[in-house]
Amino acid sequence: MVTIKDVAKATGVSPSTVSRVIADNPRISLDTKKKVRKAMKELGYHPNVNARNLVAKSTKTIGVVMPSSADKSLQNPFFPEVLRGIGTVTHDMQYSMMLSSGGTEEEMFAEVERMVYGSYVDGIILLYSRMNDRITNFLREKEFPFVIVGKPYDYVSEITHVDNDNYKAGKEITNYLIDQGHEHIAFIGGSRDLIVTMDRENGYKAALNEAELPVCEAYRIHSEFLQSGGREAIEKLLQLEYSPTGIVVSDDLMSLGVLSALEELGYDVPTDISLVSFNNVYLSELTSPALTTVDIQIYQLGVQSAKALIEKTQSDFVPEKRIIIPHEIVYRDSVGER
Amino acid sequence: MVTIKDVAKATGVSPSTVSRVIADNPRISLDTKKKVRKAMKELGYHPNVNARNLVAKSTKTIGVVMPSSADKSLQNPFFPEVLRGIGTVTHDMQYSMMLSSGGTEEEMFAEVERMVYGSYVDGIILLYSRMNDRITNFLREKEFPFVIVGKPYDYVSEITHVDNDNYKAGKEITNYLIDQGHEHIAFIGGSRDLIVTMDRENGYKAALNEAELPVCEAYRIHSEFLQSGGREAIEKLLQLEYSPTGIVVSDDLMSLGVLSALEELGYDVPTDISLVSFNNVYLSELTSPALTTVDIQIYQLGVQSAKALIEKTQSDFVPEKRIIIPHEIVYRDSVGER
DNA sequence: CTGTTAGCGCTTTCAC
DNA sequence: GTGAAAGCGCTAACAG
């Protein structure tokens, strides 16, 4: 391995001078800089991060925590897309990205502890937000820099987070259904203790309330698996006295399941039933019919969260606590008029 | 930050002893071990990775390189799933996982260079395999430990890789279509220079050959985007004199697109046309009809690649060069008899 | 503008 | 069984 000393020797300067050249210190003459840089090229010198991190007390690495891989939700294309956003920023700023896995909650917690205590990372991005999350609490108590993609369950004004206005989005997309003449609108969402689900559902309820349409319990389904158990739930929904003519689904991937369930039960979308959902991942244009969905700009969620976190770790600069990524409804073919 | 010295002082032993306790060195008496461990707990000591890595000349971190995020394929649920597999192993072995992003090929290459030269990682897993890949060549020339998920373009007997027998899988799934009475079978695949595509396509061709069915150029479509451009391609396919009654699609996500194109063109699957594909990601059971697809055990691909890589980096132990993960056809509802 | 020196936190000979 | 000391590769005062 080529070290700073080798470069120093080859150039006839001291190691510290080389170090300064690396840091592009203005107090070094252009001449020596050139000389040193040339030698670095020739010798194939590359700084050793560990040595640097050790003294700098910073790793220029951010940890990214995905939700427990136990549930199927990990296969959601949402994740590669946020990662892509985060990756762009880390790359641009010469940062690295450490990914945390962990099957069980216990394992995830252990990983985070390791990252934090072992000085693996300068900060952490949480790619989920749920009620009473142990990791969130830990990070908060330790005052370790972190940002949440989504809305924190509590301490909303204290924890930096990058989110959509899911309440508003839920309301808007429901209103769209209402505008199209729908009066019986159901909601199908993921796990109840995910904050996204809650927000979108609340938006949905608000829209119905304002339109003076009934908000009934039987119209709201929560499930993670849409293949078998989900089908039954939908079946029940459609056997109600006033079966819904429109459904708000909290996620594109779920919509796929709903779509297939409806098809199998002999309902046509959008003729018999209209469907709207959230996220606008790639597959939402591949379904048939293509989904009318809320584009939440996943990539931007990633970008902004990484930016906010890095800002946070670098200086004591305090970024905005709540960063909202605008959303937009993408109108496609899954909604019909009544 | 609590260091090894603090623990030493608190216990009344020397730093080196503490270090030995951490390494669980057998030459330390059980008594002192207990004493030291107690102090570590109380003080909340956690070893600093950077310091350790610096002297150990190992980072216990593996780099994972995803394909260029430029193309949509990144949204493929394949990726979270391999990552999950890799994550399980890294977690179990107390390793970390560094994810590499990069929009352009140039950026990706730069990232890999940084990881390698900067001693960021002990080894690298490549999550794609394409012809004449610069990164692959670089890693090979530098003799840096790496494994490919998929089959290398060349040096197959030299580069450690974890793969399915995609040729065989392609043949089997095509044979299944043939067994069901199909005689006109098309192939729709992703980018031509992806090795997976080539292998699966070759298997497809072999099956047709053996069954003495015609293998014609017009029956083979390559595309990455299935929404608009893909639709036209399929349309053409179905206007041929002998339009296919069965289609082998190289990936579940693509199947979604094909499915929707067919539906829009008024074809029913599987009544009019049968469809088979590869991967068996979660969404393949959510489509309608649910897809008959080859389960390639994505999770296992991840697990085995991580295992092989770590073995490789730890000792000079040489793992099997070609590790094959068995596949299995999952029969669902997208195929009909002729 | 550049060199000298100390030290980041840890491991690892080499003594005893 | 344990301690002292050196050093991993780099940065950052402090001199000059």
TrEMBL record, chains A, B:
It comes from the Bacteria. Keywords: DNA-binding, Transcription, Transcription regulation. GO terms for molecular function: DNA-binding transcription factor activity; transcription cis-regulatory region binding. Signal peptide: none annotated. InterPro entries: HTH_LacI, LacI/GalR-like_sensor, Lambda_DNA-bd_dom_sf, Peripla_BP_I. The keyword Transcription applies. Residues 2-56 form the HTH lacI-type domain. PANTHER family: HTH-TYPE TRANSCRIPTIONAL REGULATOR GALS, LACI-RELATED TRANSCRIPTIONAL REPRESSOR. This is HTH-type transcriptional regulator MalR. The lineage of its organism: Bacteria, Bacillati, Bacillota, Bacilli, Bacillales. The gene is malR.
